[in-house]
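Extended Data, record Light-mediated development protein DET1
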Amino acid sequence: MVRFFRSGNLTSRVFDRQFLSPRPGAAVNTIRQFYENLVPSYTIFDIDCPDYSFRKFTDDGKYLVAFSRNHQDLIVYRPIWLTYSCNEECDSHDLPPKAKRFDSFFKQLYSIPLASSNEYICKDFFLYMESHQFGLFATSTAQSNDSTVTEGAVHGVPSIEKITFYLVRLEDGVILDEKAFCNDFINLAHSIGAYLYEDLLCIVSLRYQTIHIVQIRDSGNLVEVRRIGAFCREDDELFLHSHVQTGYGGSFLPGIKQRLLSHIFRKTWNEVPDQTLHLKKKFYFHFQDYVDLIIWKVQFLDRHHLFIKFGSVDGGVSRSTDQNLAFFAVYNMETTDIVSLYQNSSEELYSLFEQFYDHFHANPQNSSLGKFISSHSNDIHALDQLRAMKNKASSSSQFVKKMMASLPYTCQSQSPSPYFDLSLFRYDEKLISAIDRHRHCTEHPIKFISVRSPNVVRFKIKPGSDSGASDSRAKRISSFLFHPFFPLALSIQQTYMQPTVVNIHFRR
């Protein structure tokens, strides 16, 4: 009995819970520690499953979103738990053949066509409402780099003939509303070009430098409530047309750019007593550089404030932006003022990033699971890792720029799974993490080590095949989808010109 009820045993913890009450407000934390013993313990390699592109779980755990390989159809599953029986002790037997099929774990709710013949679903784009009632998807036509220059378009930004956002009811797949953008460019990769906060959605048009604020009504309608770009207030255009008789069209800077320049001017003016010389060096000398800045990315901080990243045209359309000069602005939509401005090498902004990183995750979840996503603002282990990286960096300025490259925060890009909780488990973040990104596939299993017992490996996740045999010359990438609270995960390995391999990891 002493051996059975040893420390760390799941049954022992259940008994202890009956006698020991957690501190007020700490019940959820105590329950979450049970995941140290409730871990995926069995893997089905190369499971028999449809040839779909699996996107993610919603954080209420009810839906698994997938897309067809031709990027035309949306398929939504509901997770179910594997059940089977055997006459003898089940642990000594292999699973029956039926249990090794995808439909033993997931039930298909529906499959609907979302894209037309010349459009494709953006497989990296999916946002869901806090209530999990609606999901937002996007389709687009092919990108063109030789688009004609139209009035108001930024030179150097490519064009897409049509981009359409669809609001879908997740329960039954009914398309409730759609919003289309023509001859525009919105960065749909990993949902970078859109941010959802409560019922407000901001969509960033890179080509026309416009921030579209759209409200998602309870009725299932997408209603555009504001545009920020050429004009900041609703009556700006009317005012200009009424008071400017000639020269209107090309003689004015966009409203958001005017706000930016005004803020830089006032900030420079107030820095030193000798304003004239200082303005020449700091403002007028770089005036054209400031004018050439474009909006890269936007997120909500709350219902009234936007966090906007400005940079060069080249950095706005390229994948790597670490080394490009960039500015971060906090913009008040009600007053149309820029409240504060930071350069991407600012130590002050890095200090805010280190201490208040969770405030940049301005997407409050009804579910308590989202509150447990580990960051250096709420977890001492993550903070120690960040400070160790900073101490090892050869250049403090380059390190700050590298960290600032993740801002503004990408909406719904982190898994709330307890197995990514850094207060419970350790793992190699180069191979796997809570952030939704593809990783280079490893030949060795990824170990999840207990924080409480540093020498104990709680479980392993092995992507790829069971035999481990593979062509080392082929480039392989892996992605991981963890259920928000079940001990259930999918590891998906993709190799060029070869079938996709899907493994299911679960607690048997």
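Summary. The CA atoms of residues 71 and 120 lie 5 Å apart.
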